[in-house]
Amino acid sequence: MITWRGFLKRFLSDPVAVGAGIVLLILVVMAALAPWIAPQNPYDLLQLNIMDSELPPSWRTGGDERYWLGTDTQGRGVFSTILYGTGISLLIGIGAVIVQGILGVSIGLWAGYRGGWVDSFLMRLADIQMSLSTLMIAIIALALFQTAFDANIYADYAIIMLIVIIGVAEWPKFARTVRSSVLGEKNKEYVDAARVIGLPARKVMWIHILPNTLTPVLVISTIQVAEAIMTEAALSFLGLGMPVDKPSLGSLIRSGFEFIFSGSWWITLYPAIVLVALVLALNLLGDWLRDTLNPKLRRGDD
Amino acid sequence: MALLDVKDLHVAFPRGKKDEVEALRGVDLTLEKGQRLGVVGESGAGKSMLAFAILNLVADPGRVTKGSVVFDGQNLLTMSDRQIRRIRGNRISMIFQDPMVTLNPVLSIGTQMIETLKAHRNISTREAHRLSVEKLNLVAIPSAESRMDAYPHELSGGLRQRVVIAIALLTDPELIIADEPTTALDVTIQAEIMSLILTLCRENDVALILITHDLGVVAEVTERLMIMYAGKCVETGRTRDIIDAPKHPYAVGLLKALPQNSTRGAKLYQIPGSMPPITNLPSGCPYHPRCERATDECRAAMPPLENGVACFHPMHEDAEAAQ
Amino acid sequence: MTDPIIETRGLEVRFPLPTHFLSREKPVLHALSGVDVQIQRGETFCVVGESGCGKTTLGRAIMGLLTPSSGEIYFRGQRIDTMDEAERKPVRADMQMVFQNPYASLNPRRNVFQTLAEPIRHLMPEKSEADVRAQVEDVLDATGCDQSWQRKLPHEFSGGQRQRIAIARALVTNPAFVVADEPISALDVSIQAQILNLLNDLQDERDLTYMFITHDLSVVEHFGDRVAVMYLGQIMELAPTDKIFDAPKHPYTQLLLDAIPKLSGGSFDAPRTPGELPDPVNPPPGCPFAPRCPIAQDICRAERPRLRPIGDSGTMAACHLAE
Known about the structure:
Radius of gyration of chain A: 23 Å
Number of helices of chain C: 10
Largest sheet of chain A: none
Shape of chain A: elongated
Number of helices of chain A: 13
Order of helices and strands of chain A: HHHHHHHHHHHHH
Strand content of chain A: under 5%
Helix content of chain A: over 70%
Number of strands of chain C: 12
Order of helices and strands of chain C: EEEHEEHEHHHEHEHEEHHHEE
Distance between the termini of chain C: 25 Å
Radius of gyration of chain C: 21 Å
Strand content of chain C: 15-25%
Helix content of chain C: 25-40%
Shape of chain C: globular
Oligomer: heterotrimer
């Protein structure tokens, strides 16, 4: 067991963790405050002027000081779109992980605690799900969705669709992690003690076992957010993710990609840097959490 | 010259950046050839640490901070790795609580024994095989020849520990260090293994350091006894003498608390409290908060080990004085 | 004799072993094969045996932690093994359990108050919050725990303190019958006596009946009223404690007694032949102890002996040759 104070102390003594934490905090705050700090609202068509399209960053010749990092082909400020895009990417990443977590934790808990054929069935289901690549499922589902509905409806529901698809495609990771910790926990005597007083299985699972399996869940959650953001970016890059008028980091990279060779590199480069920084920070924090919370890797100084 | 002579051994672990915590706080022991010594203490008393320190196997980040371990005239703590490998596993063997620490699960018993022998002796595989079977027979493993091809998981816990003893005996060591060798085993198996170790040590004149928490086992197997508390030796002497007439109040309490030593139906004697963690030792004698004989002297200073007991107010001295 | 508080009749527990789902063979482990015990009110009924003998399975079956394959279990004359949860609920408050490992038996994320309040809240929903708090305080006092422990988490306590908390949890609903499964074997020697004394005191104060499961006969001698010696899922000998120690009738009981290390020493001097538990998946047709028994005859290998009274001392033994 680790106390909050020990946890904080450990965090502050690790420069990598602190660095990753600061980067993540800045990005999250920027995304959350985007409507207030962004110079333009890239979603508001009235603020856009096609004459401002493909302006270079403000410090280069031809740059406009209203657009610090330049503009894209539709005349939207790259800096503003990044602020909004980070928010959408984070929203999809976190939303997808919540869906994964709810599905995966419930299924894993049930499979691990019940055992027997319930366990076999659910875990085979997880195997099948894992053997289908997330991208492949998402591409098929989103392509169907795009053809079935018109672009406006698609644009309205794209975020929810992405969250649900990435969430459903990745639940086995949570389910397997939770199941294996449940298998370790359920034979411990505190579970027997709860069963001796006749506590129903549902309560034993949720009140007693679940809180003791959350440490690994926390670790993979962090890494899975990064993974979900990457999946969304990949889908958007393929034109199956967020529509151009509600861009995520991935769709920003895609929209600029076509113009790289015409010299407008800034449309792609800056969102890409932010995406890399975001994913790297999340992964570093995830690794640090895993090392810190795993008692086997810890030295006995507390 | 004594076979093993340990002087003022200290082992410390770092705590935080500068601080250190001592797990062993100055232990002395001497062991003659063929002598059997029991080391008794509760968990955290430092008895296993003593075994590791003797073998110069203290795991990082712990280290031996002071003292010497002289085996047959050579100090093990100042030796190079190459030199010590000629002694450890060869002239000094080890038996651990969990046989799977010693046994490799993916190699057959025979392969492991033959490899061990060939690492220390310049002999042919055929000769190593013959000696291995001989040792398996010695530890009374039924159908030893065919067991050479068995893998550790195919054997029961008792047989596995017998194999570990056979491996420990392979190189005809002069000293065996056994750390809780029977704690994980059933009583009847414990009796078999312990009587086997006792017989083998006697017949081959092998010295033994037996680390255990069980005073009964010590009484059955050893000649000398050392009782440890919070990283220190609190009483040492002949096993029989200590068991019959313990001097340190802790030894007295331990013996009195055994169900064997109390009358049926009567309340057991109990030592109040529990051993302090090494990170938080009281001043003076570490036992004084639990001791009914403690005085201000005990709270102020650590009593030195004199006449085999580290106590300002040992038991039985009054009785001796009267004689 | 009065009506027993706990009675089992022909209790059998079989565990199907995991196999490949296509495999035809369905191997079955016989954990208990036909156990009849009657535990009288107010007594301490000890169940002794080595690992794999079924002693823990017996305790768990009585507590409803596993379902018997056949046989009946009665609590105060009511059959409890076939009850559904609603019927069983009032009985559960009267039957509680203390587990072996105090490091695993307390949920690490729940504080002492939460752990102790849970049985009352679940089994006695009519109690008000104030009653729950009062009952928790009472039981903490009774088990020698400090009231300040209530808001602490298990990792802040030593093994002995944790076991006190585990005992408090078992007693918080004022049960009449407590199964104690090796409650002291994970504890240090100086703490064992404290816990045994506590259990003894609580028995007097609260009119408790214990089923005390242990591998350690020396504890039984001090603690038990009657003893059942188990081997491979069967009771080998059932007798009052003093009879077991003074006049053991079953050869297995004699072997167990002989295996206890004695402070007087000398009983490990002769080497012993290795003995193994027979395979519980394919138990021998006759007496399960026959393969290890020094006096076994043909009848022992052919026919399973029933538990029968030996003489008129109150001893029962499952041995063809005992007299």
